[in-house]
UniProtKB/TrEMBL annotation:
Its main location: cytoplasm. This is Holo-[acyl-carrier-protein] synthase. Transfers the 4'-phosphopantetheine moiety from coenzyme A to a Ser of acyl-carrier-protein. It comes from the Bacteria. Signal peptide: none annotated. GO terms for cellular component: cytoplasm. It comes from Nonomuraea montanisoli.
């Protein structure tokens, strides 16, 4: 059963300008595994983190570092949820996450489904 859906879109050029203007933002938004990726990939991952929060219903206290996007063995992106986000997901009964990422024509997008 679908317990939550989240989607987010990021303008890549605007996101890149924000990262350049505020260098410390990378460490506040991305895990160590994510930080050195190309900007288009970071934009897609930021969209995924926002989409996770939306799929969880926008609970207070959930931080960007609590949702990490990793490449699975098959090459598909996978979500790894920790901290407060994992607590909320558990309370909602989330058993599985589905994630789709894309970036093209200057935008990055993520779609997240929380399944119970």
């Amino acid at each position: 059963m679908i317990l939550g859906i989240g989607v987010d879109v990021v303008d890549i050029a605007r996101f890149e300008a924000t990262l350049e203007r505020t260098p410390g933002l990378r460490t506040r938004l991305f895990t160590e595994r994510e930080r050195d990726l190309p900007v288009r990939s970071l934009a897609a991952r930021f969209a995924a983190k926002e989409a996770v929060a939306k799929a969880l219903g926008g609970p207070r206290g959930v931080g960007h570092l609590e949702a990490e996007v990793r490449r699975g063995e098959s090459g598909r992106p996978e979500l790894h949820i920790t901290g407060r986000a994992a607590e909320v997901a558990y309370e909602l009964g989330v058993k599985r996450w589905h994630l789709s990422l894309t970036h093209d024509a200057g935008v990055a997008m993520a779609y997240v489904i929380a399944e119970g």
